[in-house]
Write a structure and sequence with these properties.
The protein is of the alpha/beta class. The chain folds into three domains: about 80 residues, Winged helix-like DNA-binding domain superfamily/Winged helix DNA-binding domain (Arc Repressor Mutant, subunit A); about 100 residues, 3-Layer(aba) Sandwich (D-Maltodextrin-Binding Protein, domain 2); about 100 residues, D-Maltodextrin-Binding Protein, domain 2 (3-Layer(aba) Sandwich). It is built from eleven helices and ten strands. Strands 1, 2, 3, 4, 5, 6, 7, 8, 9 and 10 form a ten-stranded mixed β-sheet that branches. Helix 1 packs across helix 2 and helix 1 crosses helix 3. The N and C termini lie far apart (about 55 Å).
Length: about 300
């Protein structure tokens, strides 16, 4: 029996679809189907009830799944035990991160961690918060950093590792730039620049506005951009005003290329989280970085 096929089988049960397993294991969908069929052939048992639309295991499938979990646990423990015999942590950190953590939190965090562990490398892929959570959920990444918490039902865990404030900014020449404070009603008269709907920043401001019985779609959204830097550049160019991360706007505020506008009755804070798969064993590298991040997390604010 091929142990890799057992891993593919357990991933299929966890994720619920052949396409999700293919993404998780970086193999083709036909390869996933072949491995499941070959496992059934080797065991001379049907493991999946194919008469059902939703993935359902046969009695034999339940037994094999239990065995597969045991094998994966034992393999992880073996790898962790061997890792601890090494003098230092080694390997590559594969991280999914949304815009603000990737640009303003992770560089210093990773820099300090890598300075203490010279044999590790890191690769950070930038995406929106919703995609970060899905990427960790589907096993594409072991770690994610974003501005949203995952649903508990997905088997993921998270902890708060930084705080930020969402502010309204305009170019120095904008009509609102001279105002000490404006009302939400006044904002309806001006063009807005926004992040995409799946952005954590946008979702946070939508929730804050909803508490004031005000919907974001009441504003004149003229431009939608996929990252904070692009939004701030558009504000600097005079294309409109925007709600942005204080961390992201800090340099532009210091240079005077944008100005902050206070809104009466509206104050919006935002938290960032480290997201990881809660079940099973992590490698020594992941455990060390999680521990390091938790220790550093309380002091990270905008």
């Amino acid at each position: 029996m091929n142990l890799d096929y057992l891993i593919t089988f357990s991933e299929l049960v966890r994720l619920g679809s052949f396409s999700a397993v293919a993404r998780s294991l970086a193999i083709s969908q036909p390869a996933v189907s072949f491995q499941i069929q070959k496992l059934e052939s080797d065991l001379e048992m049907t493991l999946i009830d194919r008469s059902q639309k939703k993935l359902k295991l046969t009695e034999a499938g339940q037994i094999v799944l239990s065995f597969a979990h045991t094998i994966r646990e034992e393999h992880s423990q073996l790898q962790n035990s061997l890792d601890r015999l090494k003098h230092d942590v080694t390997g590559q950190l594969q991280i999914a991160a949304s815009t603000i953590p990737s640009e303003f939190i992770l560089p210093s965090l990773l820099g300090e961690f890598m300075a203490s562990h010279p044999d590790i490398t890191a690769h950070v892929d930038i995406m929106d918060s919703a995609t970060v959570i899905d990427s960790v959920k589907y096993g594409d990444y072991k770690l994610g950093f974003c501005g949203a918490t995952p649903p508990k039902a997905d088997g993921l865990s998270s902890f708060k590792m930084a705080s930020d404030e969402i502010i309204l900014v305009a170019s120095p020449g904008h009509p609102l730039s001279a105002e000490k404070e404006v009302s939400l009603t006044e904002l309806k008269e001006h063009s807005f620049i926004c992040r995409e709907a799946t952005s954590g920043t946008r979702q946070s401001i939508e929730r804050a506005l909803a508490k004031q019985h005000f919907a974001l779609n009441k504003l004149k959204i003229r431009l939608v951009l996929s990252n904070t830097e692009a939004v701030i550049s558009a504000v600097e160019a005079g294309n409109g005003i925007a709600f942005v991360s204080n961390m992201g706007a800090k340099r532009s505020l210091e240079l005077g290329s944008v100005v902050k506008i206070d809104i009466s009755g509206l104050s919006t804070s935002r938290d960032f989280y480290c997201v990881y798969y809660a079940r099973g064993h992590h490698s020594r590298l992941i455990e060390e970085f999680l521990h390091f991040t938790k220790e550093k997390s309380t002091g990270i604010t905008s």
